Structure formats: structure tokens, C-alpha cells
Fold each of these.
Amino acid sequence: MNQAGETDFDTDAVGGAGKSAPAGIAGMKVRGKLNADAPLDKLVWFKSGGPADWLFEPADLDDLLTFLAALPQTVPVMALGLGSNLIIRDGGVPGVVVRLGKPFSSVEVQRDGVIECGGGASGILVSSTARDAGIGGLEFLRGIPGTVGGFVRMNGGAYGREVADVLIDCVVVLQDGSCVNIPAADLDYSYRHSRLPDGAIVVSARLRGTPGMDPAAIGAEMDRIAHAREETQPLRSKTGGSTFKNPPGDKAWRLVDAAGCRGLSMGDAQVSEKHANFLINTGHATSADIEGLGEEVRRRVSESEGVTLEWEIKRVGRP
Ligand SMILES: Cc1cc2nc3c(=O)[nH]c(=O)nc-3n(C[C@H](O)[C@H](O)[C@H](O)COP(=O)(O)OP(=O)(O)OC[C@H]3O[C@@H](n4cnc5c(N)ncnc54)[C@H](O)[C@@H]3O)c2cc1C
């Protein structure tokens, strides 16, 4: 078992930092930014929720490894991407939230249709870099507003493709400050799920597309995806993407609709009129409003449709 309480991966170690005595988080020396009681609401799509006990934005990989190696193992660690699939509860997040910013957002084209991406790179940057290099098969990432780290954890997907189809491997920093390379096959991917341990941070990933394609055709497909999303999803709202997983053989939005929940609200939280599987914050909704509305939808769908919807949005932190 590793520190995250999960079975160890059969992986190649690719780096790590030596253990040093924890001096208390406030006294820890970092080169990036480390702030106590740091607001997270501005950093997530729902624009709600409480602060992180600590928010760490590492300067680079070494900074992250050194910090985690010195951090007491009892302190919880959570990665944050663009917060596009998250409800941060109103009481805030215990421990350390790690946000990979610019130092982790590079995207580089390698040989044979392989693209190496930082864990903080956005889906748009990955898909447009692939397009410019004539690499097809990654267009679907154009429409998913998140980072590579979030995609790898959530097995993000759209339009019939998902990360499991294109991921070769990823480099992951574990909570003890060790760094391992995990092949895609070891992540046991299923629909919007991987077995990445809690607290593990994806710092980079290699994706494979199809080389030698026409950039204009790839661009046209990306435009089609962007347009289709604009038509069907509340992209300009404060939201968290698909709220519930599609149950086998059905669509979550159809069940929410059938249970009469489209437009239902709780405080300033509302089931989107545009897409019934999206919750939106129409003003100053608290995370309790948003999560409470989601639970009410689950209750009504279960009562009227006999299906228990499973949350796709991750809900984290103290109520
Ligand atoms: C308008 C809209 C449309 C969307 N459409 C889709 C869609 O079509 N398909 C789809 O799959 N999703 C969709 N989503 C949801 C969301 O974009 C994806 O789940 C995305 O993968 C989340 O990425 P993120 O970086 O923002 O992660 P966050 O929302 O910040 O975090 C989500 C989870 O990933 C973890 N995480 C984040 N970064 C890392 C990292 N570096 N290492 C390890 N774990 C990490 C977090 O701890 C958390 O558990 C949509 C969301 C919105 C708002």
C-alpha cells in the first residue's frame, strides 16, 4: 500500500525528493506561491465554496516534490485544475490544494503523433497544438474545459472518445513526494473514472494521435465541436459540467427531465433550462444550494424513474 492508502502501482520511479523533517506548513520554504486560508471560489467554474487551508502553486516539479516530501503525511493533498468538475463545499478544503499553473502548461509535439503535455495544460491548447502539427484524434479535447491532469483523473471524454483511448502514460507525484510513471493500462479506466489514488497529482501526460492528417480538416472538426457545445450547453454560466453520470443504456439528462426537474431551483442554484444534466449558479448560490439541489434531483429521479443517479461532479471539502 502507498501513502494514499491504495495498492501500489507497478511503475517505474522517475524521480523523487528526500524526506526532511516537517517544520509546519507556515514555515515551509517554497519557490512558488504558498498561501493560507486561500479563497477557491474564483478558481472554480461554479464560483462558490470556501477557502483552502493552504493553496500551493509550485514553481516547478522540483518545488512540488520537495514540498510534498517535507509535508506531514497526515495532511490531505488535493489537485485543482480549472475547477470545471468540482463543487468546493462552503466550509473549505482541509490540508493543501495544489494548483498547477503556467510552469506545468507546456504542450510539445514529439515523433509519431505523440504529444507531451504538462498536467496544467488546457484541452484547447492540446487540441490546437495537435491540429497545427497535423495530428488527428484529439479534437474531442477542444470541447472539454479542463486541464490534462483533470482529464487523466476523470477519463474526460466527448463525442465518442475519451482519455483512455489516447493516453500512453502519465507522470504522477504521490503524496509522499515520490514521482512515478504510470502506463494508461494501470489506471483501470472506466466511464469518467480512473484508479488514480487520492492526493496523487498528474504533472504530465503523453497522448497519442494520428499523424499526417490535414490541419484544415482537424480544425473544421474542432469548430464543429465548439459550435455543437455552444448550442446545447450553458457554457457561459457558472456551472460544473455534467452533474450525473449517464446510467448504462440511458442519459442522465433524459431522466432529470422525465422527473420534471428541468428549471428546478434551490436558492440561486438551478437545473439548467438549456441542458437538464447541468446545474448552474444564477447569482450567489452557495455550494450547499448547488449540492442540495443535486441531491433533490437524485431523490426525485429515484422516486419517479426508479434510477439512482451517480454524481459525476466531484464534491470536496467541509460542509
Ligand atoms: C461547460 C462544461 C462542459 C463540460 N463538458 C465535459 C465533457 O464533455 N466531457 C467531460 O468528460 N467532462 C466535461 N466537463 C467536466 C470537466 O471539464 C472535466 O471533468 C475535466 O476533466 C475537469 O478538469 P479540471 O482540470 O478542471 O479538473 P477539476 O474540476 O479542477 O478537478 C476534477 C478532479 O480532478 C482532479 N484533478 C485536477 N487536476 C489534477 C491533476 N493535475 N492531477 C490529479 N488530479 C487532478 C481534482 O482533484 C478533482 O478530483 C465539462 C465541464 C464544463 C464546465
Amino acid sequence: MSDAFKITFLGTGTSQGIPVIGSNHPVCHSTDPKDKRLRVSLLISWKDYNYVIDCGPDFRQQMLTSQVSKLDGVLFTHEHSDHTAGLDDIRPYFFRQGDIPIYLHKRVADSLKRRFDYIFADENRYPGAPAVAVNLIDKDHRFTIGDVSVMPIEASHNRIKVLGFRIKHFTYLTDVKTISDEEAEKVKGTKFLVVNALREEPHHSHFNLEEALAFIDKIQPEKAYLTHISHMLGFHEEVEKKLPKNVHLAYDNLTLTV
Ligand SMILES: [Zn+2]
């Protein structure tokens, strides 16, 4: 088996996904499959390992589509529902494998413990409830998944902090509005950078396209991919044509070898 990482974009949409329920926006009626975006999530596979970053409401469909039969763990960027609401659907993995390792900041763990109390319960557990093995992480400490080291990177998503992850020459950052120079320094030297770009108009908690491109320019990766995309950004094909040569819009089920 190869040592290269296979990256699969499981979802590249913003919180409501595309199409938005009931929307008359032309992008929501597009027939281009690249304009259909599930909630944002990423699969990292190498050797026999499969890890996902975030576990949103489309997790079940994403695992079926990408045919992941063994899941080694879930890394969480933050607690918002579009990144966490699918946690119950780890059940098939739990039944086969036992407690599923999750990697998350203490604040995110506290939020999930309130919202999925039955998953975290120590006593009187509901038969059939899944269980997790909690690994607390923070921006100052590397951690290991499988046989590789992960460097967390902290950014701000309006009032809350989010974590991005760097694995060797690959960095994934989503739901970023601002990032300190110190944290951006940790991203430098990365060859493949994934970063969020919501739309052209400014937004209170997400990079718009201009801010995402400015960040990419600062980091200078070989290739960058934009994710967490709103229908308001426009048709995939038209936006893709306007981007700098080394920058692409990600789309659902796009795979990269990094
Ligand atoms: Zn989000």
C-alpha cells in the first residue's frame, strides 16, 4: 500500500448545503453535479487508515458514497451543527469496531456532551447508543492519528475559535474569518491548502472569496482548494474560470493524492 494520502472532499457546501431547501436561486437549480454540495467534511485515507474531519448532517450519505467500511476516528474543527450533527451515525462503525476515537477541543467536547449526552454517558447507557474515545486537543500540541503527526492550527470564526489541521504538506482550514500571523506561520510551507470561501460579499464569520485569495497569496501553496461554499458564490464552472491558476473550487467527491 502506498504512503501517499488520499484526500476526498465529502462535502464542500456551507451550513444549509446546496441546493438550499425551497430556494429559487439559479445555482440551487443547476444540473451540474459540481453545484450540488453537501455539508463540509473531508476524508483522509492512507495505508489502512480512514479519518474524517467533521461529521455533519450528511455524514451517513458521505460514508455510503465513499464506501468507508472502517473509520479510525473523527477530528472536529468546532461545534457548529453543520460540522457535528451526524455524530449518531457513527453507530455502524461502533458496532463493528468499538469506541470511535474523536479528536476535539475541550469546549467542543463540552458542547457535544450536552447535545449527545447518551453517547457520552457512563451509566445507564441506552442499548444501541454509540460510544466514543475522547482525545482533547488544542492549538499548542501536536497529536497522532494512525502513524502520522497532526499540527492543529487555530483561527477565529467570529466569536469562537476553530481548529484547522496540518498533516505533512497538506493543510485543511474551514470556517475561518481571521487568523493570527503566528498561526498562519504554522501553515507556511504547505503544498496543498484547503480553505473556506463563502461568497463574494463579506460575511461576519467566514472568509469571502477576496479574503480567502489574500490568505492563499500569503501562504503561497503549490495548489489551493476552496470549500464551505454558498450558492451565492455562483455556478461552479463560472467561478472556477475566474480563479488564479493555482486555486480551484473544490467539489463533492473530488479526490487528491498529496
Ligand atoms: Zn460551517
